[in-house]
Amino acid sequence: VMERKIDEYEQRDRDRNMIVTGLKDNDTSVEDVAKKLSKLHFTIHAQDIEYVQKLRTTKGPARMKVVFKKEEYKMQIMKSKKRLKGKNDTVWIADDLTQYRSKLAYRARSYAKEGNIAQTWTFNSKVFIKEQPTSKPKRVFRPEDIPGLELEDD
Q1: Burial of 22 from C-beta contacts in 10 A (0-12 / 13-18 / 19+)
Q2: Dihedral, 62, 102, 51, 35 alpha carbons, nearest 10
Q3: Which residue of 10, 47, 48, 142 has the smallest Cβ count within 10 Å?
């Protein structure tokens, strides 16, 4: 219970953040990121972004943490990012999840890829699953909420 409260508090601190993967290494200014997101047909302006921070990566494409001045600016992009599917394979946009939620989302994705659940996704920093294609979405708080998932020691 205490761990969940700490996670909630930490996640609330990230509510205005998103992670953008696949930008060029030199796209590190607020203006560069706003311009790149605009090219992907998102309505965003440089003045909507508080700051951009390049995240350390050892391999793969560059990752940037984008912190917006208001959560609503981030949510506009998150709600419309589905339109990137199939049209863009170089830039990915995701919530800035806590380490706990990131691991939980990863485990749910792995479980879905194995065919054990129908679907999983994150929205507004929360992890969701659908056990069957026709079942209602279910929010996942901990690994035990995913039916049949073998628990691992973390």
Answers
A1: middle
A2: 50
A3: 47
Tally Cβ neighbours within 10 Å of residue 79: 10
pTM above 0.85, yes or no: no
Q: What is the pLDDT along the chain (154 residues), one digit of tens a residue?
A: 788 889 999 999 999 999 998 887 777 789 988 988 887 778 889 999 999 999 887 777 888 999 999 999 999 888 888 777 666 667 888 999 999 999 999 999 999 999 999 999 998 899 999 999 999 999 999 888 988 776 555 5
